[in-house]
Design a protein that fits this description.
about 230 residues, Rossmann fold, Arc Repressor Mutant, subunit A, 5-stranded parallel β-sheet, 4-stranded antiparallel β-sheet, elongated
Length: about 230
């Protein structure tokens, strides 16, 4: 079986070599580029499985690379992990809303990098979930057809919005959703988007789920995700 191919787009030579070394050591096939333009060219010609993409690049920056790839039918399905300087929350949110799968803040641990790469590839490898199928995760059962939620053997009464929020997050464990993505998925484009409205729903949902509410993780400055299955 061919090795999973990862393209690393990073202009800092030390970081580029660090990422490349650790990926190669774990058996991945690796290509590297030190500019957005070169990364875009390699993504289109080599068809990698995953892109590790720095945001601060000379010339075309990482966000523009991501935007261009996601608009191109031949590369729109490419998995993308963003590398970003710590604190660039606006860029992180923008990247996720453009279609990036995850992000890693600098400085980072190689072990964290490899874990994130594997998690994204694992999620991408899962078959598409039937939206009417019951979701079973971390002892929680979510039945869209019956609009019922059970934690263990105990039923949990949720509002329509709380149910949709839980269903959205649990259907893609480990995936980071921005607040805008959550509101758009639950209510549609015409609903007023505010951070507060999403945060209030999450607080209420966690309370109703009891200890299981801890599986809804806050991603500071970005949004929320449901804890992945290890």
């Amino acid at each position: 079986m061919a090795a999973t191919h990862v393209l690393v787009v990073e202009d800092d030579e030390d970081i580029q070599q660090l990422v490349e070394y650790n990926l190669l050591k774990e058996g991945f096939k690796v290509s590297v580029a030190d500019s957005g333009e070169e990364g875009l060219r390699l993504a289109r010609t080599e068809h990698p499985d995953l892109l590790v993409l720095d945001l601060m690049l000379p010339g075309m920056d990482g966000l523009e690379v991501c935007r261009t790839l996601k608009r191109d039918p031949s590369t729109t399905g490419l998995a993308v992990i963003m590398l970003t300087a710590k604190g660039e929350e606006t860029d992180i949110v923008t990247g996720l809303e453009l279609g990036a799968d995850d992000y890693i803040t600098k400085p980072f641990s190689p072990k964290v990098l490899l874990a994130r790469v594997r998690a994204v590839l694992r999620r991408r490898g899962r078959p598409a979930r039937d939206k009417s199928a019951v979701i079973h995760i971390h002892g929680i059962a979510i039945d869209p057809g019956r609009h019922e939620v059970r934690v263990g053997d105990e039923p949990v009464e949720l509002t329509f919005t709380e149910f949709r929020l839980l269903q959205l997050l649990a259907a893609r464990p480990g995936w980071v959703f921005t607040r805008y993505q959550i509101v758009n998925a639950i209510r549609g484009e015409d609903y007023v988007v505010t951070d507060r409205s999403v945060d209030v729903q999450v607080v209420g949902l966690r309370k109703k789920l009891g200890p299981a509410g801890a599986y809804i993780e806050t991603v500071r400055g970005v949004g929320y995700r449901f804890k992945d299955v290890q």
